[in-house]
Amino acid sequence: MQVEDILRFSLRAAIGNRGRTFLMLLAMAIGVASVVMLISLGESARLYVTGQFSSMGSNLLIVLPGRSETVGGPPPFLGLTPRDLTLEDAKSLTRSPAIRRVSPLVVGAVPVSWQQREREIVVIGGTSDIFTMRDLTVSSGTILPTLELGRGEAVCVLGYKAKQELFGHEPALGQKVSIGDRRFRVVGVLAQKARSMGDDLADMVIIPVASAQALFNTSSLFRILVEAMSEETIPQAKKAILGIIKDRHEGEDDITVITQDAVLSTFNRIFRALTMTVAGIAAISLVVAGIIIMNVMLVAVSNRRSEIGLLKALGSSRQLILRIFLAEAVLLSFTGAIAGLMVGVGGIKVLAWLFPEHSIGLAPWSPVVAVVVAIATGLLFGVLPARRAANLAAAQALSRR
Amino acid sequence: MISLSGVSRIFRVGGEEVYALFEVNFSAASGDYISIMGPSGSGKSTLLNILGLLDRPDQGVYLFENEKISDLNENEQAAVRRDRIGFVFQFFHLVPRLSAAENIELPLVLAGVDPDERKKRVGAALKSFSLADRARHRPDQLSGGQRQRVAIARATIMAPQVILADEPTGNLDRTSGNEVIDILEGLNCQGITLIMVTHDPDIGARAGRRIRMMDGRIAADL
Known about the structure:
B: alpha/beta; about 35% helix
């Protein structure tokens, strides 16, 4: 029997019994749709998080005071180590040829007020480089001026939300706000989408790092952001940082350097595992679909006993009958898989439309996986019914009325 | 062309062995017209099933054109059924979802014959069995006589040497029954061996050779 004839025969048999066919298609479609959607959601979550990390800026290294043996774990907090990072440390890092930019950071929360309005806002002490390194843009005004590291200036850049809360709709540029007990002139307002890694930079005020140190009355840094020359020089930069700081800290390794790719790969691993788990759970519905296919095919075989007997009388061998029934199971699985695929892709599109900010998208390999698994399921669970059909004794099958 | 010697078929019913056929010796020459009669349970259908390779004897030797059937494997036996034997059944056994033409075409499809060739042969068969205007009807849209004509067309489409008919008129009224018998006899005149199981003494009497079965043995062979 020619392959296209086997397919046509199976197709006719499937169309001939609508209820049975619908049941099998439905089961397989639900299985495939759930696999496609869950894999895609898992992948989207992973891409979202890694995307957020990338928005920290490229080729970024983070220098923290204190030692931490684990990479990507929670960083130690300020004040846990006897030796702090200082502005001098930060300045010395620029000596390395592998390092392009250095941005020391000081962070603290103080009351910020303008006229009668006062809010407790997180104040970040930084340099003009932090805007480049963390990809921050201003919607009005300018970024911080480029100053020598030790010099402060009474200027500030407001986050979008901080500006809204202090000024409402009134213009903020050129106004003086009180930060702690000092007054700073507003030179810029951050663009609204300035958001990275969950720190909502919209609700912050950025001032020059030396001013922040004076404000918080400290000489230590919260952390130092370092940008390597290129992706290839990241390991070199890391080595240089460790070496320079060790020299300055009397030969002690008392800092932690986090590279972006170390953090990224940790997150990647976590999310891959998560996606696989979720996909595994979804695959259970494919197994259920397989069992339904097996059951329905077994019923079909006993309903079509006399037809099978006839096929044998007309000269079908066992193998041919096996093939005909397997073809039917696979055909139905495949059609169900395609239907499920459309539902899954449609579902992802709807979710992407409902939640545009979460960058939900179809994982490109999920349809392939789902359809291959669906066909394999059809084959696997089609074998038993097909074998039963092939092994029917022709004489008995024909005598049943 | 067909020869059975010492063929027995045993069924086990509740731990007891029942001989559906007991040491049957039977032979048929090419072009024979043989009717097999006898009461229910006398082994007529079992004999026909064994002749048609739908059932295997438990003892004895079956030669089909001097070939020992028990030496053939499953695939070779299927090929013998496909190419050399045509079956006609009491309950027609047409595939309900296929049209008359498609039912007739089925053996050609199973044999892997090319679509063009299939179309030609089915067209000719429809014409010679006066079914041309019924080609696209499904079995449930056909009368009993028409259904059996479709079944006979299907049985002969592969140009077999033998037609085995199991009560071909059992489900038909007198007129259509006679019509079917006429067709079968016409095929026999063209040289096809016809072996027919029947309950109807009038029809049985028309055969050139009449076999009577009783308790799994051949009681009379005239």
